[in-house]
Write a sequence for this structure.
């Protein structure tokens, strides 16, 4: 894997949605210290030597990276390169038949092999997640307001307070008041994805993982949802792992990018540097294909 110096902690001249990405307030992230090289000081998530195997062999091979508090990191790579499996391993949601080895720690706490009870406490509270297909992640038979409220009550908010808070949170992602009483099928794809983002951020998680959250949406709607993701994590100081095959999306949301190929990380660095001057042939081809 190539290590780059980390000349800047923000996105300099890269185009990004207006107003969506003011700098995250991180007074201790001085530019030349390279966040990913000082994990012991401000690391939130540390993935070390993560491998994921099944009977036929290795699907993810010795992947290591860090995400600092409040940092927004993109994970790119062609379809099948191991992005989703990496995210699933972090969340303790690997499909049956796959085994993970190595280490995944969140604030120093080992997640790999942790008991399911502990992981389900973490999911939705410390780890928020948004996937590509919002319909399958929502309960079709439950009103939206109740689903958001449940995300809060499961993690300790009083029922009465949760209903009010759910309405506030839905309003914050620009959904009209009537949304709370609607069922998932009554909403558009973009609205459903706003609901999932609301649920994912409801408990102010330390880390939000988004896996291709806008891939199924129209381009204009994609931009709105991306703005909301960026705004949501910025407002809360949440760290972000954003998975996509779309390099333009990475440029608009992330500060740093990891490039995954055939289950390995082949390059990482500040988004602007990697996209404008990729060191690895594979990254260069991804960038060229996106132009
Ligand atoms: N449950 C599974 N069993 C066996 N192989 C799997 C399973 N899930 C994913 N894979 C394989 O692992 C590789 C990485 O998959 P994935 O992480 O979903 O890729 P990406 O998200 O980058 O498109 C692919 O070759 C895929 O076919
Ligand atoms: Mg995937």
């Amino acid at each position: 894997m190539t290590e780059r110096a980390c000349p800047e902690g923000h996105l300099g001249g890269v185009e990004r949605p207006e107003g969506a990405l003011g700098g995250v307030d991180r007074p201790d992230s001085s530019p030349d210290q390279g966040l990913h090289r000082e994990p012991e000081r401000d690391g939130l998530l540390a993935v070390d030597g993560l491998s994921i195997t099944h009977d036929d062999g290795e699907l993810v091979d010795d992947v290591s990276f860090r995400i600092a508090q409040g940092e927004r990191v993109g994970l790119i790579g062609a379809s099948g390169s191991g992005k989703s499996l990496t995210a699933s391993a972090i969340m303790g949601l690997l499909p049956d038949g796959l085994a993970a080895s190595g280490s995944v720690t969140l604030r120093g706490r080992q997640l790999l092999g942790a008991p399911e009870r502990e992981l389900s406490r973490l999911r939705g509270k410390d780890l928020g997640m948004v996937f590509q297909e919002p319909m399958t992640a929502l309960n079709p038979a439950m009103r939206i307001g109740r689903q958001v409220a449940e995300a809060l009550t499961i993690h300790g908010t009083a029922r009465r307070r949760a209903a009010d808070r759910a309405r506030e949170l839905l309003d914050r992602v620009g959904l009209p008041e009537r949304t709370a009483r609607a069922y998932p099928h009554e909403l558009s794809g973009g609205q459903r994805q706003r609901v999932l983002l609301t649920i994912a951020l409801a408990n102010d998680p330390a880390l939000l993982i988004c896996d291709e959250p806008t891939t199924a949406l129209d381009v204009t709607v994609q931009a709105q949802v991306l703005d909301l993701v960026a705004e949501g994590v910025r407002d809360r100081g949440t760290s972000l792992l954003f998975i996509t095959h779309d390099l333009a999306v990475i440029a608009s949301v992330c500060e740093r990018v990891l490039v995954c190929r055939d289950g390995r990380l082949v390059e990482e660095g500040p988004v602007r540097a990697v996209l404008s001057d990729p060191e690895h042939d594979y990254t260069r081809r991804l960038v060229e294909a996106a132009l």
Q: What stands out?
A: The beta strands are 43-54, 57-68, 72-76, 99-106, 109-110, 127-130, 207-211, 239-243, 256-261, 264-270. DSSP finds eleven helices and ten strands in the chain.
